[in-house]
Specification:
Length: 741
């Protein structure tokens, strides 16, 4: 019992209990441990158990969003309202990204014993990763626990975040398929169908039209026409939903691609769901909507007889679980396996004995085979458990899959096979690529004009030869590939070398490696993204020294923000050398078009906010940077213009309309200083004794009491210059004195 609480301590599911103890041992030995368990298995409770077992120790919990952490706490508090959380400090990855170095140091000063990285694959994002790694470096004594449903960033060059952040120390790794096989998650009823397939048909029509051989083109056109007819005869979504959604008052989460897509799907609700239940209530949840919290809460508590649909975009993909879900409906384009499994997982809950419904509604033919990945994981888990003598742990080996468009899938696979027919066909395309480029450094996702996935095919040839996958590759075929420049080495090594060669070519052309993030070279290589990933690898300590040296030789910029600052600083230093100060008007632009005035002002703004390093402050001070407030800076700018006038003319008799060569209205400024001193109660400006003294030192004349005497002096001076006094009656000097008054 916990003291003062009529509850027993947290009890984990068996699979989580085992993972927890493995993680504790691993953290004791290596200081870090990752746990990779699928959505719905309750892995957040592993972290709560760590907190419970260490009530006196400080814990920092990092998460993608406050919303995820909030819902995890709600679930925890239902089971244990008195759970101790006073020593837990929560931050989002986005919050860390906005922190200055000083703020990160303040967080680290809490001296955490543990840091929990929830959904740690998200820390691989460039915008979040740098600040996360910086915090970890500031907390070298803290033990690291990571939780995620997948450690692989599939759309980010398959980066393994368990390797990058935890050095491969994974305490427990369980696939979604294994969780279903072992009965940890319930086996779903899985229904596949298609909608809005016209764009997909058009894409394959273009591939067929681009085929160069008439006989092959005719054969593929027949497959495509048969697929089109089968799709036209398939059941509509209204009939599919009416047949398979048997819980007429159930709760279903409907995943959409974006807000526009969600609005379109919601508009079809009366048409598609009336056959299920004419009384339908629609809730909408997406991260930018301020009403999301209320909609989500209302959905969870709705116990009416209505059919309840929660349409959402991104926020329920990860970290959030809803009890009592009857199923999920996936309205989806092609997406990463991470998101696909997270969305499926919303319908699966550990300890739930019901059979959830998954309706996979795709708008592309490739999506019809997505479930095969989950089925493959299940088969692999079954074989491994039997091989390890753990067959008694197998609860189910398969689940029900209903293909509403089975014939369409078969026809599509036949079309795919026909379009990709034959080793010779691919070799011919590889030979063409070699003739055009002089090498076979083909990007993995490269597709030929005829629609063949040449990049994937070449990767397959390498894997077959290395014995990584089954296949036949004869010595003759190997020799033929060698003749057109095939490189058989490690794919990652080849990919890096190719990226380096593209980077070197960019440097040779432009003289630098300041590559925009979205830059793609004329051959379609995403060099901007390669540069970003390479910087991240160095930051994480995962870039070999020899590669760092290679990139240094061609001018690699490791910190893009430092490089831009140094460039602007050099311009500011040049201005100081020429002018003796850094009092630059905000509108000032250099001859090369650089907005130096704005940059100087931005540094003055950043200084009081602590966004400049001590070194930067010291260097800027050395070249005359003025750090006062905005009004001080404005006054000082005018004073510097006045001083330049005094140095050039020997006085401060500035004509009222005078504008300096740099565009500064000095005449008006001098007149305003005089007015401020003479009328302090009427002027909104401030003229301190220090400012008055500085103006006195450069010849400022303040009053008009001696104007007649001054007119005489000016008249005599004018006579000396012009030998006559033919002065206009309206003429005034720079001191606003009329000579003919």
């Amino acid at each position: 019992m916990r003291e003062g609480v009529n509850k027993v301590t947290l009890r984990l599911f068996e699979h989580n209990e085992k993972a927890y103890h493995a993680a504790v041992r691993m953290m004791e030995q290596y200081g870090k441990a990752a746990i990779v368990h699928p959505t719905g298995t309750g892995k957040s409770y592993i972290a709560f158990k760590l907190i419970e077992d260490n009530p006196e120790k400080v814990v920092i919990w990092l998460s993608p969003s406050e919303y995820i952490f909030k819902t995890q706490l709600e679930s925890l508090k239902k089971n244990d309202p008195g759970f101790p959380l006073s020593n837990v400090h929560f931050y989002t990855y986005a919050k860390l990204m906005c922190c200055t170095q000083a703020q990160l140091e303040k967080i680290a000063a809490q001296k955490p014993a543990y840091i929990i990285l929830d959904e740690f694959h998200r820390a691989g994002a460039e915008c979040w990763g740098e600040s996360t790694v910086a915090l970890l470096k500031l907390c070298p004594e803290a033990k690291l626990l990571g939780l995620t449903a997948t450690n692989i960033r599939y759309l980010d060059n398959n980066r393994d975040m368990a390797e990058e952040l935890f050095d491969g120390h994974t305490a427990s790794d369980m696939t979604l398929g294994e969780a279903v096989v072992r009965g940890i998650l319930p086996a779903p009823k899985y229904v596949t169908t298609v909608y809005q397939y016209q764009k997909a048909l058009a894409k394959y029509q273009a591939r067929v039209d681009n085929l160069r051989t008439p006989g092959i083109q005719d054969a593929n056109q027949k497959y495509l026409d048969a697929l089109r007819r089968a799709l036209e005869q398939a059941d509509g979504l209204d009939r599919v939903f009416a047949h398979h959604i048997t819980n007429k008052s159930g709760k279903y989460i409907v995943f959409c691609a974006n807000k526009e897509h969600m609005d379109e799907m919601v508009s079809h609700v009366p048409e598609w769901f009336a056959g299920v239940n004419p009384d339908v209530v629609v809730y909408e949840a997406y991260s930018d909507d301020p009403n999301t919290d209320k909609a989500f809460a209302d959905f969870k508590t709705d116990t009416s007889d209505r059919l309840k649909l929660l349409f959402c975009i991104d926020m329920l993909n990860e970290g959030v679980h809803v009890e009592g879900i009857s199923g999920v409906i996936l309205f989806r384009p092609t997406i990463s396996p991470i998101i696909y499994k997270q969305q499926i997982g919303r319908a699966l809950t550990a300890g739930d004995n019901t059979t959830p419904l998954i309706l996979d509604v795709v708008n592309n033919f490739e999506g019809l085979t997505s479930i095969s990945g989950l089925q493959g994981e299940m088969q692999e888990a079954v074989h491994r458990l039997y091989a390890n003598g753990e067959g008694d742990r197998i609860v189910t080996e398969r689940f029900e899959v209903i293909e509403q468009v089975h014939d369409c899938r078969v026809l599509f696979e036949q079309l795919q096979a026909s379009l990709s027919s034959g080793w010779e066909h691919y070799f011919s395309e590889a030979s063409i690529y070699y003739a055009e480029h002089g090498n076979l450094n083909v990007p993995k996702l490269y597709t030929t004009p005829g629609g063949l996935s040449l990049g994937v095919w070449l990767v397959t040839q390498r894997r077959v030869r290395e014995g990584q996958i089954q296949g036949i590759l004869t010595e003759q075929q190997i020799q033929r590939l060698d003749s057109i420049g095939m490189v058989w080495g490690n794919r990652k090594e080849i990919a890096w070398q190719h990226g380096f060669e593209v980077a070197k070519k960019y440097h040779d052309t432009y003289g630098n490696l300041m590559v925009p993030g979205k830059y793609v070279n004329p051959d379609g290589y995403p060099l901007g993204q390669w540069i970003i990933k390479t910087r991240q690898q160095k930051l994480n300590g995962r870039l070999k020294e020899e590669r760092i040296a290679q990139l240094d030789e061609i001018g690699m910029v490791w910190n893009i923000f430092d490089a831009k600052w140094e460039k602007a600083y050099a311009l500011a230093a040049a201005y100081y050398e020429e002018n003796g100060n850094l009092n630059i008007p905000r509108s000032y632009v250099t001859a090369a078009g650089e907005r130096l005035g704005q940059w100087v002002e931005s540094q003055q703004w950043a200084y009081p906010k602590g966004k400049l390093t001590d070194e930067q402050v010291e260097r800027l001070s050395r070249i005359g940077m003025y750090w006062g407030n905005r009004n001080d800076r404005k006054w000082n700018e005018g004073y510097q213009e006045a001083k330049r006038y005094f140095d050039a003319h020997g006085d401060l008799n500035v004509p009222a309309e005078y504008v300096s060569p740099g565009g500064y209205n000095l005449g008006n400024w001098v007149k305003r200083q005089r007015y401020t001193r003479q009328n302090p109660e009427k002027s909104g400006a401030v003229l301190t004794e220090e400012r008055i003294a500085k103006l006195d030192a450069i010849g400022m004349r303040w009053g008009k009491a001696d104007s007649r005497l001054r007119r005489l002096e000016l008249s005599q001076e004018s006579k000396r210059k012009s030998e006559n006094l033919n002065v206009s009656a309206k003429h005034k000097t720079g001191e606003d004195i009329g000579l003919c008054s």
